[in-house]
Design a protein that fits this description.
The protein is an all-alpha fold. It has a domain at 53-137. Helices cover 83% and strands 0% of the residues. It is built from 7 helices and no strands. It has helices at residues 2-10, 12-36, 41-46, 50-73, 77-98, 105-110, 114-135. α2 (12-36) packs antiparallel against α4 and α4 (50-73) runs antiparallel to α5. The two termini are 33 Å apart. The model has no long low-confidence stretch (mean pLDDT 94).
């Protein structure tokens, strides 16, 4: 039992490194994503906008899923960083692509039109799931 605990504790530095890097990548994602979108996610969420909360939650989960997949299948921190940046780019592209059929998606989210928030959130989540599956060897 003590030997098993010692073995598990030996993995703690690696766990902390991967976890810390994933938190930094999430912060970078939030900073970049909120600067790319035409609407202010945090301001709208603070104002109780369901549309903004759904859209932003979907994008965060859509980023976190491939990030988790990268953490599971990567051997090094550098691999996690690279795949995390790929996941970030995918989420930015999703936002830009969602605007093709709904050019005023940000304006509609600002107006708390829940359908627009669901459309963006679901698109982000779908892309994240496909992105995560693509990263799995």
């Amino acid at each position: 039992m003590i030997e098993q605990l010692n073995t598990q504790l030996m993995d703690l530095p690696e766990f902390l490194a991967f976890f810390f890097v994933s938190l930094i990548l999430m912060i970078v994602f939030v900073a970049v994503y909120t600067n790319v979108t035409r609407h202010s996610e945090f301001k709208l969420i603070k104002e109780n906008s369901v549309a903004a909360a759904v859209a932003f939650s979907g994008s965060m989960i859509g980023f976190a899923l491939p990030l988790a997949s990268a953490m599971i299948s990567s051997l090094t921190i550098l691999e996690v960083i690279i795949w995390g940046l790929v996941a970030l780019i995918v989420q930015i592209l999703v936002y830009l692509l969602v605007r093709l059929p709904m050019p005023r998606v940000s304006e509609r989210i600002e107006n708390n039109e829940v359908a627009a928030g669901i459309w963006l959130g679901a698109s982000s989540l779908t892309a994240g799931i496909l992105n995560a599956a693509s990263m799995t060897p």
